[in-house]
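Good day; I would like, with your permission, to put a structural problem before you. What I wish to show you is a protein chain and, alongside it, a tokenised description of its three-dimensional fold. Please examine both parts with care and let me know of anything in them that strikes you as inconsistent. Thank you for your consideration; the sequence and its tokens are set out here:

***
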Amino acid sequence: MIAPGGAWPRVVTAALEGAAVLAALSRARVDRRLLGLAVTAVAVTVGTAVVTALGGRSRAGVADVIGAALLVLVAIAIVLEFRRDLTVTVQSVMAGLCIYVVLGMLFATVASAVSAISGSSYFAGRQSANSSDYVYFSFITLATVGYGDMVPALRLGRALAVLEGLMGQLYLVTVVALLVSRLGWRRPGPP
């Protein structure tokens, strides 16, 4: 969020997201084929970010779409790791909160992709936005704070904002609340 504008911070972000995916999947002890697929996805994501840094707004949209797919893989890896544990622990509650953060990052990436692919400004009254703007807007929307200093100009952007706000609230009042309420509780195993 504090990265300067430009294409090269996108490469660093892609590399960090890729490292997070690989770390989460290796921790989750997933099948080798899925891990191989993830390594390939990370390589494609970082490669696309490098190509984007060398020029092209539409390429930035493609890089964002691929980055969003990586973020989905992070959430899947977290769920795979903690679905096996029959006890709700502080770690599993933190995993639930991590998915909430990934959800905010996912919507920020999708908003950036929408703007880059459409060639239109995502926000009303702003010619351009950087990754910091998208992340800020995403988390303000996800938490339903809604300061109103940034407003989506595109219809698709408004629809995404509504979806994100609903998902943010439903996720907190269902998944996180359920995890916190069952902290220390042990699920019954199979008979």
